[in-house]
Amino acid sequence: MDLDAPPAPRDAAAPFSPTSNEQNPPDLILQTSDNVRFYVHWAILRFASPFFNDLSALPAPTGPDANPTHEGKPVVCIPESSIVADKLLRLCYPQFSDAFKVADLEGVDGAYEAARKYMVAGVTAQLESFLVEPEILKQHARRVYAIACHYGLEDIAKKAAIASLPEPIEDVFEEELPPPEYSSISGMHIWRLQAFHRRCTRKLESCLYKHRSAVPAHILATSDSV
Questions:
Q1: Which of 19-28, 70-79, 160-169, 217-226 comes out lowest in average pLDDT?
Q2: Mean pLDDT of 1-13
Q3: Residue spans per domain, the chain
Q4: What is the pTM of this model?
Q5: 134-150 helix and 108-117 helix, angle to the nearest 10 degrees
């Protein structure tokens, strides 16, 4: 058994499986770097991205250079992983139902990069809006901070830094693995987040001390132990 061999091709899950849209069957397959086949529609991708518009205008090659096909549909291989492709494609399609809704951060970092690469209209803006959704910031502030730093999204990075304050900054170093998006940012970005936490802690301590007569004793005791 060759452990280095690529995984066998398999079909993506809904909404990009072969039978996800039987009323309007897909007419193109995008095959990812991990050999997952996404069944999509030329018309939607052409509208979303000049890359696919130009690709569809090229004459079909013949002979040994012909593009692969599967079940009668052309196959276009892309370098992105299936996790990234799933996020990107969900945002290319009209959001008529929750089936195409982005629900978590997995692959969002790569999808943002792919949206820039393929010049997909509106997807970067959609992802930026997703990153600042209250629940996403509450649950994944440090991951959002890293994504924002990676792409120079200063306003989002500031919002994520503020959202990360309720959780002690030291907690991230007690986890077995860092947030996956930390691999895309520098030590300086991490230092800035730590420094921001320290400044906020000192300001809070100073404020509590100045107004200690109006602060319940149990809170002052907690502050003294910081």
A1: 217-226
A2: 79
A3: 1-130, 132-200
A4: 0.81
A5: 50
